[in-house]
């Protein structure tokens, strides 16, 4: 069977798009002299996870195109979902970036993020069309080649169906449609890493793998429902690597105060300095047009945060609430700042 697949690949071997060959980095790679690979640090896939970053890839997101369907990734909903995901697990999300479908941009961003953060997720650019260049760009970033992932291909055949407007499509017959589908199962391959660590199949009813590159870069599709589903099913694999393996997450305490920000600023500045060694961040947020503002404590040390509640309530002349608007009067139109 896989001999047939290899024959298909040879038949439809395709050059990269012209715009993927214009950079100096690409030229060097064509001579097997990748400036990116020479400085790459190798990250262990078993490394504890403290920090995270999210890279949203797609011209359509930057172009502000309106969403016309539930699954259309033209408005970024994936980074907010990922932010909530990290918060729930106690992972510090340190950076979110949105970049174009541009090889140089992807290479620079993914290498920088992989070097700086423990858990990196990319979203978008792994479809069947000419501008889906995420796999090939991330492969180049770490001096790797693309390789047909046989299990992903078998799962694709088993779990996906040809479009109704492709009545003559056949998995065993070379065609442009088949070549396009194969793009989605040709992932970066590192000969120095175990195969099972480079493609994670976390949902039995989904053929899309989470490709893992350099130990910490996780390549996910941009379609929100698939992005979210794969992340949710990835959670059990992440829990043993978290600072809090029970997955209790980060706590956020809200305090409603009638005082303007300028009145609480001196106290909050002092509190922030005092709370920093405990990993607790202090925030202050105006609520324009409302009579009450919000002060927040965010951190993982619940016992310490609990100990601060009486003090904060007294100093801001307010109280801890579950919702920002909990203490708002029925008619609240005055500006709060």
UniProtKB/TrEMBL annotation:
Pfam families: MoCF_biosynth. Gene3D superfamilies: MoaB/Mog-like domain. Residues 315-337 are annotated as: Disordered. Residues 53-241 form the MoaB/Mog domain. InterPro entries: MoaB/Mog-like_dom_sf, MoaB/Mog_dom. CDD domains: cinA. SUPFAM superfamilies: Molybdenum cofactor biosynthesis proteins. Residues 324-337 have a biased composition (Acidic residues). This is MoaB/Mog domain-containing protein. The lineage of its organism: Eukaryota, Fungi, Dikarya, Ascomycota, Pezizomycotina.
